[in-house]
Amino acid sequence: MPSLHDTESRQEIVERIRRLTPQNDRLWGQMDHARMLAHVADQLRMALGDLPVERASGPLRFAPTRFLIVHVLPWPKGKAQAPPEAFTTPPAGWEADKMALLELIERFAATPAAGLQRINPIFGRMSGKDWGVLAYRHLNHHLTQFSA
Length: 148
Known about the structure:
Layout: H1 7-19, H2 33-48, H3 63-72, H4 94-110, E1 119-120, E2 124-125, H5 128-145
Antiparallel strand pairs: 1-2
């Protein structure tokens, strides 16, 4: 499974972000390009401990369900509800948000697994491996949403 901790997988994501423009077609959902950049950056901020999160209380926090969603099952398009923490930071401007996201990706990659936040507001306790896969899949999902 690709992970943001993998150099090759991370480089693929970075190149797709660099090619992304506000003119890319949105294939599903209601979020606009600028909001998407801020949203995926907030997920990385959560993983890095920059954004405080509440402990998960739903059924996705249980290990078997978490594993299936993070590592195995395809993600629905436009159906999943992200936690409020994933919409904390307002867009600041296209180029600034792109640069912030690229910097967060590099920080994430440079952070040892043990240094990542242990709690996710949806999935509960997360390992560093879980965070790496989740971060890759989340970025891939939204870049695909915007034809990148």
